[in-house]
Amino acid sequence: MSEANVSAKVTDEADVVLIGAGIMSATLGAMLKQLEPTWSQIIFERLDVPAEESSSPWNNAGTGHSALCELNYTPLQHGEVNIAKAVRINEKFQVSRQFWSHQVDNGILTDPREFINPVPHVSFGRGDEQVAYIKQRYEKLSKHTLFEGMQYSDDDAKFAEFLPLMAKGRDFEAEKVNISWFEGGTDINYGAQAKQFLEAAQKGGTEIRYGHEVVTIKADGAKWKIVAKNVHTGDISTVKASFVFVGAGGMALPLLQKSGIKEIKGYGGFPVSGAWLRCTNDELIEQHAAKVYGQASVGTPPMSVPHLDTRVIDGKKGLLFGPYAGWTPKFLKQGSFLDLFKSFRPTNLPSYMGVGVQEMGLTKYLITEVMKDEAARLESLREYMPTAKAEDWELVMAGQRVQIIKPSGAPRFGSLEFGTALINNPEGTIAGLLGASPGASIAPSAMIEVLERCFGNRMIEWGPKLKEMVPTYGVALSGDKQLFREVWDRTQQTLKLED
């Protein structure tokens, strides 16, 4: 692009720059606005509207990942179900509920029912091995404080009563089935939640520059220089900031690479796309009211865990099945086919090559998924809903996920991580979040970690305010049954999750 086509803007100053107008930046911005009301904030978003990538309700599961039903958080190890990860994730989700409740009480989040609704969470087993696993998982989790109230049944009549769509046409004599469930599960629209946060932010003085793509992040003394391009006009603008947070979903990796911080060296990203089957028959939609998760095939990524999923989006109930995994080199759903290749660096090529060698099973699985036709997708759905008909479902694209490729030593060189990782420099002036699940569900907990890492010298001063936002900040609810019940009841009421 020639200089004649671009007009340079005078450099602006900001205390905080947030990159990406999704749930992560929206959450951190809300926290910082309450901790330091005088700090100026600017948000850059490459799209013309907020929360249309990973935070969009059609681009993620919306489960409210609290490990109530997601079986990949309770792996079977040496014949025993390990619940440690499920407990950690549930603890973090309780932080989310408390923070959201505080934001509702203070008018930042204005309508809970726009973004959170009660939907039971169900774990589903079929066949002897899965049935035994579901039962053992229930026996371990139901004894734990955070999972108290979880229920279980291997009774066919109960199954049919609770999940009529899944029972109709099923041969219960030919294959054992069982379920465990938690009535207090939720469906969450993180796009709607992010929009409520951002509307309050703008009213509070935050400047949001939509249609602006950050092209460069460079250190400039003790500050950072952020250069952004207007995607419509090509105009270039520059902002100097004391603190930068990269909450740009899949593009967090390349943006952190551009910053030059050594902490990102060796990291790579493995993009995984997906698709849903969305029910178009209102009669069927009304017959199902649960998020039903099964077990993923061996070697498949967590985002491909199959589920028959009740959603509430824009006030309307819907039903999805999937996701069916796929592959594209894009780091964002509306990204570029060059995203993956642009992320290659001499420092992370060993990580990429190491994962390429180690994950041949995953590669084979993704190729198989990409090749699935309508009949094959319908056959997968019929494992959950035996009487499913093609005319009642349509194929829609899910969101793009970039799983973390983490650097490690020989002989592995790199490892594929199915989670999230916070990257920051030692000075605490820049940070970013890599990875996907459980992602948005634990955004408040993740953003508190950003505060602890990057503003450690202020945490004593901020402590009382943080305790207002999250009353149990610093306390493990799993160790205090009475406190957990009090917090649960309070957040149920504030978030309008009680009938």
Automatic annotation (TrEMBL):
<dbReference type="InterPro" id="IPR036188">
    <property type="entry name" value="FAD/NAD-bd_sf"/>
</dbReference>
<dbReference type="GO" id="GO:0006099">
    <property type="term" value="P:tricarboxylic acid cycle"/>
</dbReference>
<keyword id="KW-0274">FAD</keyword>
<dbReference type="GO" id="GO:0047545">
    <property type="term" value="F:(S)-2-hydroxyglutarate dehydrogenase activity"/>
</dbReference>
<keyword id="KW-0560">Oxidoreductase</keyword>
<comment type="similarity">
    <text>Belongs to the MQO family.</text>
</comment>
<keyword id="KW-0285">Flavoprotein</keyword>
<comment type="pathway">
    <text>Carbohydrate metabolism; tricarboxylic acid cycle; oxaloacetate from (S)-malate (quinone route): step 1/1.</text>
</comment>
<dbReference type="InterPro" id="IPR006231">
    <property type="entry name" value="MQO"/>
</dbReference>
<dbReference type="GO" id="GO:0008924">
    <property type="term" value="F:L-malate dehydrogenase (quinone) activity"/>
</dbReference>
<protein>
    <recommendedName>
        <fullName>Probable malate:quinone oxidoreductase</fullName>
        <ecNumber>1.1.5.4</ecNumber>
    </recommendedName>
</protein>
<dbReference type="Pfam" id="PF06039">
    <property type="entry name" value="Mqo"/>
</dbReference>
<keyword id="KW-0816">Tricarboxylic acid cycle</keyword>
